[in-house]
Design a protein that fits this description.
By secondary structure, this protein is mainly alpha-helical. Helices cover about 55% and strands about 10% of the residues. Helix 4 packs across helix 5. The mean pLDDT is about 90.
Length: about 130
């Protein structure tokens, strides 16, 4: 489900210079946008807002330290019998490598990652 409108509202509380946007999150948002009807008003509106966001915030790539975090986390979760989608694990690894707080609508999944600082944007909505 696409939470872009709510995320944009939440983002307005923070200066753009304090927000990191990592490439795996961009991929997830692009996927959500691509699922909307081509040419629809909603898709055009959200796409425009998304591109403004991309221009305003700091970008964080999946670096070598993030890749090392990914390997460590995937092995740990596997050993503990826990599962997290690879894309979510990549996002978590970028946040850990950047020592950043991860804002999410899905705290339940990301809380499986030890030492990951989380900001719950779900407003109590079930994951």
């Amino acid at each position: 489900m696409l939470w872009l409108p709510e995320a944009l509202c939440n983002l307005q509380r923070y200066p753009a210079s304090s927000v990191l946007l990592c490439t795996p999150v961009v991929a997830e948002i692009q996927y959500g946008l691509a699922r909307l009807a081509p040419g629809s008003r909603k898709r055009r509106l959200l796409s425009g807002e998304f591109h403004r966001l991309c221009d305003a915030v700091v970008w964080a790539d999946w670096t070598e330290p993030a890749a090392a975090e990914y390997g460590r986390l995937k092995a740990y979760l596997e050993q503990e019998g826990l599962r997290l989608d690879d894309m979510d694990l990549i996002i978590a690894s970028v946040a850990l490598a950047q020592k950043a707080t991860l804002a999410t609508f899905n705290v339940r999944h990301f809380s499986r990652v030890p030492d990951l600082a989380l900001l719950d944007w779900s407003g109590g909505r079930p994951a």
